[in-house]
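Session log. Operator J.P. requested a structure for one protein chain; no other inputs attached. Running the standard single-chain path with token output.
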Amino acid sequence: MKRPLAVIGFSYSAALLAAFLFGIVHLAGAAVIIAALFVISLFLPKIRKLPYIKAVILSCAAGLMTLYFFNIVNVEDTDVLMENEVHIKAVICDLPYVQGNRVYYTLETSDIDFPDCPQHIKIRVSSAKALRAEPYDITELTVRFYSRSGSDRFSDIAKGIYLRGSIKEFEKITITKQDEKPLYYYALQARKRIFDIIDNTFSSSTAPFMKALLVGDKSALSFEDREVFRNAGITHILVASGFHLSVLTWLISSLLMLLFRCRKNTAAIFCAVFVFAYMAVVGFTPSIMRAGIMMIISLLGLFAFRQADPINSLGAAVLLICFINPYAVCDTGFLLSVTASLGILVLGDRLTKKVYEVLCPLGNSDKSIKAEVFFDDHKRGIKTIISVVTIPVSALVFTYPVTIVCFRFFAPYSILSNLLISFAASLLLVFLFLLVLCDMSLIFGFLKTALVPLCSMLSKYILWTAESISSLPYAGTRASYEYVPVMLAMTFSVTAVYYFAKKDRKRNTITVMFISALVFFTAGSMYDTMTKFDSKKVSVLDTGSGISVILSKNNDSAILSCGGSYDKIAEISSYLSDSSTDEIRYLLISDKSSDCSAYAENLMKNYHVRTVQVYDEKKCTDRMHSLIYESDEVILSETNKQQTESYICCGTEIYVYKAVRCNAVRFEVNGTVYLICHKGSDCSRLPLTFREVDIMITDGISENMSYVKAGKIILSDTPTSLEDDVKGMEADKTKLYYTAGYGNIGIRHYQDGHVSIRRENEWLN
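Structure written below.
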């Protein structure tokens, strides 16, 4: 069987990916069914002669069984810690990073004071202030664990993080210094040294981007900058992967052969050591692991004077990573890295050759003959220039489905972005690496003065180009939940028909798939825009513990509540960005609690807000005050008396009721009456007009909730917190919807009166 590791590795990972997409509830049963199919295939002569079929079936069954046992051993036992305050003893095992107003630490526990739970797990905790500790110091503290469900938790486990929590600020924290440090400590110190060099050398506007480019650390990169790169379709340069390793190993190999006269096979060994060291500095993320394993296999093959099969090496890397941690397939960086590499390996050379043949002149005229001689004499250089276009296109073809499925997003200008930025990014990566080496050395430090302006110029060019492209019309087009499954089904149907109808099917099938996908996507986007024009939408965002509700019509947005967990702060900004929202028409800050207004300051800082309505103004911080008065209109409401006020936005009249121990918002969309009421409110204090509604949005059972009659209830909180509330409401036979870590809920009201309620992040189900 040709390329056995590729067949096994891709089948194994595909089964894991399918399990996560369609649910991991019945893993063992699915694996048994697949194994039974293998047994049946042994009795079918035609299939028995095809080793590929048997390898695929067994690999799929092995993948599902591995995931099943991995969940039992590593995942399920940690669930008991969720929503509990626990005293732990742990080692700080990574560099801390700052996000928002909190500092995040990665800890590896050695003792957890809680019965029937694993003692040695990796967790990530946040703190209001930095700890006086460095990596591999031992700490004893109290952590409040919280729930992360669905794709958020899958992504954490892919990185080896099993739980998240926050440090109790007023509890005693003990730090014990360790004299003996493991080898990985020095990799962390090298990363910290790199960060210090970049921060001390470059401005705050370019340094975060340079850190992301060199080592893939995006923690210092603002949400707005991330959106710019995403809309431009070049986020891959911010993820340490094969692109980075290819450029840097080429640089190391060239320096070794040029300065030290090393032979190719000797240089390959030094490059393999460098690749492993770079993987450690980056942090052994799934994407760099894939690229690193593949690169090391190729370098060892070069050392042994044997050419490794790159597709087989890619399959081996995928198999090894997914066997160690089946959740690796949930890491989008890993998926994009694998599919981009596969696209380049499968399509890159073929596409380059095809373009070269088209450009190469044919005919018998003297000019054609001269041109053909020129093409033959400069064949290698011309193909290199052509590959600048064909390589990004090849990667795009294969990453397109991952982008649509994982992000529900498409960047139409990504080819243009890659043409304008890829070469500059490669140069910047080389210059940055040389700058860091020069700064660390005592001999070549003088070269730093020449490299700094080059790095600054290239970084400003890349940032300016990305920002310019991201501001173009339809840059960063959102893939609507309703038509994406239809689009994918039609694309694969057309491809299948073409494959079985044409003789030269193998040569052009991928091209047909890509073109048909673009056609169906464009048609779907136009249909989606036309059918949703002038419709209204109410979105309840999955923001953990708290309520975030957005009322929108076309490009106008009214934020009626912006509360939730602090680790979910990007959710509301991401939603507004995906909805092409440039400004917020109306922002309601009805309460200063995190349940209602945790994200208010961030929203006012990053968006132009036309109207802000504020209650409890005296409780706002000075920074909040300054942001509030940057709005076009400020409505200050008294809080010392019971009152109902109204405001019209998005063609809807919004009523706000405020009283002691009661805070509620009522509005009506095309005859459907909504009530937003937080669990801390006393429903017996609500006015009569607020008590009978069609849809109630809350974050738990409120006091005297029986006073409210609601046809449907949307609960916004985490699964563990909601467990008792859900049971009580289900007993009343109330129709329930809940975010609970599984995605946003969108209610769209069409002009014809039709109402659609769906969980947006699970459009495939």
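Operator note: The chain has six domains: 4-76, 82-181, 185-343+412-478, 344-410, 484-528, 536-762.
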